[in-house]
Every structure is written in C-alpha cells, then in structure tokens.
Amino acid sequence: MNMNNKLTLLLSLFVLLTQGLQAQKNSSTQLSLKQAQEYALKNSPLIKNATIDLETAKQKIWETTSIGLPQINGKVAGSYMLALPDKIKEFSSLNSLGLWMYNADQALKGLVPSSNQNFGRVPNPGPTTTVSDADQKWGLTLDITVSQLLFSGSYLVGLQASRTFKQLSEVAITKSENDLMEAVTNAYFICVIAQENKMVIDSIYLTTSKILNEIKEIQKEGLMEETDVDQMQLTLTNIQNTKEMIDRQCEVALNLLKYQMGMDLKDQIELKDNTDQLIGQLNAEVLVQKNLNLNNQVDYRMLEVQEKMAILNVKLQKSTFLPDVAAFYNHQENFNKNSFSFTPPNVLGLSVNIPIFGSGQKFSRINQANLSVEKIKNGKQQLSMGLQTQFSDARSSFITSMNKYQTNKQARDLAYKIYSRSLIKYKEGILTSLELAQAQSQYLQAQTNYYSSIIEMSSSYSKLEKLLK
Description:
Elements: H1 3-26, E1 29-31, H2 33-43, H3 45-67, E2 71-80, H4 86-93, H5 97-111, H6 133-137, E3 138-151, H7 153-220, H8 226-261, E4 269-271, H9 275-280, H10 284-289, H11 298-319, E5 324-334, E6 346-353, H12 361-427, H13 433-467
Helix pairs in contact: 2-7, 3-7, 7-8, 7-11, 7-13, 11-12, 12-13
C-alpha cells in the first residue's frame, strides 16, 4: 500500500469517526408524558432520598430489635506494677503455710493415740515454689461477658415506634411520588405549549416576512404608500421580539422539565405528546365524579402516623416507671497464674434496675407527651376541614378551567379564521396593513389565551388528582 492509499484510508476512518461522534452528540431521547414520569420516578433525587429514608427506617427496626437479643463483649486488659506493694509481699509469704500445716498435722498424729482420728487429714500440698516479685508485677486477663435483656418497657415501646417510623417513611415516599408526578406533568404541559406556541409564531413570522418583502417591491414601483411598508415592518419587529421571547421560554421550560425528572441539563430530549394528546389523556369526567376519602389522602395518612408515634411517646414516658431486668454471665481468664486475683473465673448474675424517685420529672414528660397528642389531634381536625375545602375549591376550579378551555379554543379557532381571511383580503388589496396587523394581533392574543387555559386546566387537574390519591 502506497502513501496516498494510507492517507486516504486514515482520512476515511477519521470522517467516519467524526460522523459517529457527531451523530451521538446530536441524538436525543423521545419522551411521552408517561415515559417522563417513569424516568422521574427512577432518577429524581427527591425519590432517591425518600427511598434512602425508608431503608434507614428498616435498619432502625433491626437496630432496636437487636437491643433485646443476646450481647457478647470481650475485653483484654494488661497491667504492670512498677513497685510491688508490701501487702502483696506479705500475702505471698503465706505460700508455704500449706506445707507447714501438713507437717504439724503429721507430727500431732504421731503423738496422739491411733484411735484419735482428728489428725492426719491435712493433704500434702507438695513442694512449694517461690514466686519472684517480677512474676507478680505483671498481669494479663481476658473477660468475656454475655448479657440478655429479659424485660424493659422502653425497649418494647421503642420496637413499636421503629415500626411506626417505617410506616411514616412509606407514606412519605407516596407523598414525594405524588408531588413529583404533579411537577413533571405541569412542566411537560408548559414545555409542549411553549414549543407549539413557538411553531405558531415562527409560521406567522415567515408569513409576515414574506409579505413585507412583497410590499417593498410594490412600494418601489410606486403602487403602495411607504406608511403601509412601515406598518408591516413594525408588525414584523413586534413578532420578532415575541419570537425571541418564546425561544427563551422553550429553553427554560425544557430545563425545568429535565430538572424535575432528575436528568442532566445537557441531555437532549424531544417531546412525543402534543396538547391534543395530553388533553385526551385527562380522565376529566371520572375525576369530577369522585369524592374525597380522607383515609386514602396522603397528607391525612401522614398525620395519622405522626399521631401513632405521639401516642407511643406517651407509652415510652410511662414505661420509665417500670424496672429493667437483665441476666449476664462473665468469664475471666488470668494468664499469669502467679499474680493475685480475687475475681472468680465464672460469674452468673441477674440485674434489676428499679426507678424509685425522680422529683416529678417523669410525670412532667408524660404530661408533655399527652399535650403533643392533643396538638396532633387538633391538627388532624383542622387538616380534615382544610382538605374538604381544598377539594371543593379544586373541583370547582377544574370545572371552571374546562369551560374556559372550551371557550378559548372556540375563540382561537374563530380568530384564526378571521386572520386567514384577512390575510387573503390583504393580498387582494381589500384590507390595509393596519387592519391585517389588528387581525394578526387578535389571533395571537386568542392563541395566548388558549394556551393559558390549557396550563390552568392541567394544573387544576393535577391538583385535584393529587387530592384524590
């Protein structure tokens, strides 16, 4: 292969690689509203943190449960005495006492008659070894302690509280999911509306720009006044400003949707659903017929769990009047047989901790816990009335927004017909540029009102739907 062929091959590979990277860079993900919601449930930091809270609650249950299970602890301790106390030396001198008593017993046995059996019973201790001071100075022990909690009122209440805390975390996940679905839905609607509005403005801009070029040519021939050209130029400038504003709104709306979904802002996405499809997905008739069920409402359920925890706190404070009972076993191994130790090698025991007098502190804590329960009950009553009011207001707002949407849709369609006819009449010379600008402005305003009513309807729908979950 000659040099030219090598260069050609390398250039081809470079072009293919560049095209592949560019295609990968320009690729975008198409998402429907449902897919955006599913993506958000998997990737949103809000849901991830709520899931972590639930896992923490599960670990807390095991942590509390393990308190009532057997506990085993070990301890190794080493010591060295710089100077041996005199008392230990004196006690060490008694090491030969056993041999002395044996010899005395044997001597007395030989002096008394054999019929007397009171002597000769001391066993022979064998030869004694002298313990040096150095052997007595150091010590090394191993302690192993096994304990078991037999009864504790606070432990039993704490176990119930940890399980209730897990329920609270589960309800919190549901609430986070409902809030996220509402936020993603509203952001998706806003994004789709911004993009469709951009398409309308772009179309009007191109049409107006084309008309301006045409009337400029006519004006050059002296068949049209300069005022008409200026009026059309002013209209085009206003449309240009609106177009640039909507372009920025589209970018902001997309970034907002990515943020709600937990997606990197650098990722490219395309929205598959349009406004007609999104509106068709709203189950409006069924939703309006539903009634509020407080037992299924997530905010009310969360307050109910908090009430359970407050009641358990009352039990916890009352349990402090009960004794704590525990059993234990301790084994100590002394590795220096020459050192003195008065601790027995094996100890089995039972401990009972009985509260006697606390100067009214525990009664005060119980009263505080009872007041917290009363406060939560009052909050439940207030929340119940508030949710009923919110539900009534949300359903009324949704019905009003639906009617407003239908009215604005008809007005938008009518304004578009007027604009289209005015455009034809303008090209035929029947309408002036000022009249065309008025028809155009009327159509743009009707279009804005139409999209605003869609946002209002979707928002009220999401709010009503969340109340009924």
